[in-house]
Amino acid sequence: MLQKMATVVGGSCKRKEILQMNQYELIVERIASGEIPTGKGLNQETTFKRPGDTRWGSHFGTVTSVISLFSPITSLMKIIEDDPKNDAARTDAGCILYAMEDFEFVFLLHLMKLILGISYELSQALQRKDQDILNAIGLVKVVKSRLQEVRDNGFDELLQETNLFANKYDIDIPNMNDVYCPKGRSRRRLESFTFFHYFKVELFNTVIDTQIQELNDRFDNVNTKLLECLSCLDPRGSFANFNKEKLIEFARFYPLEFDELADIPFLSSSLGNFIVDVRADSDFGNLQTISDLALKMVEKRKDIVYPLVYLLIKLALVLPVATASVERVFSAMTFVKDKLRNRMSDDWFNSCMVTYVERDIFATIDDEEIMQYFQGMKNRRMLL
Length: 384
Prior knowledge:
mainly alpha
């Protein structure tokens, strides 16, 4: 419903202007009634934030903007619903307005604000290219703990907040002791439970349990241990997180690459020599990522001196840690493989994807150099 709302609101510049005007009138009215204070930096204009497909942190901004702009958005939907010129927009606006006037929509809006607010820092940490794996794992544990705490003790506070919001905007609040019946459904052949049971068990507990289970599935004990070991290769702070025992444990996750009898003892000695060597070399002092470490090792020919350590670094690089980068590549496919390029070969498609995803790198290459390269590949009828 929020996605549909974003489409309707952003459908034209005129609707955005109406939303801004409604917001301005609301702020003036609240200032006149003394509901909100005035001062420098207060009461700034806000916009409806469209949620991003792969930026999960953006959904928190969408939910909070809907809550803060609830009255202006409602007024805008009424205007669109009364406009006879656009039947499709009128239908969507009517569906949105019907949903916004329902207590269940308001409850879910505040529930998602609560959950997305708890996981916001984790979402931001996992989206960064220079991921701090150790802090990300710590945030996973924090989010799990917070969600469990909210599940145990947070329902009454959430319900109270939702009731205050509903009273503010004249939304009917159901009696929690009445028997729940979905709108448009007959009371016959339905399980008999109250509104309180529906909102707490069917919605609140179910949604939070799903979030906790998802985190447990994606960050189980093995994965968490693997990432903690991986963080020991982080070169920042002069290899401040380096831990030889954890790196040996990391190598044991790959028995086909590191033999317990033949390779692990040599790896232990190599890691001890490696850390002393790189900490004494100033060229390794300003590295930020594991990929920078791999490049610097090849440049300084340390990959030949410490082959087992370099193999460990390569295994760390191929781990699917940067899932955000992978999601962005899949999002880029919608731009590269359109209807006009639907039958391109795999090689051509791969080349287009590389140039699109790494466009910052390709922007530094001179066009003349590219044309000279293609000119030298084979004879052509004219100079490029």
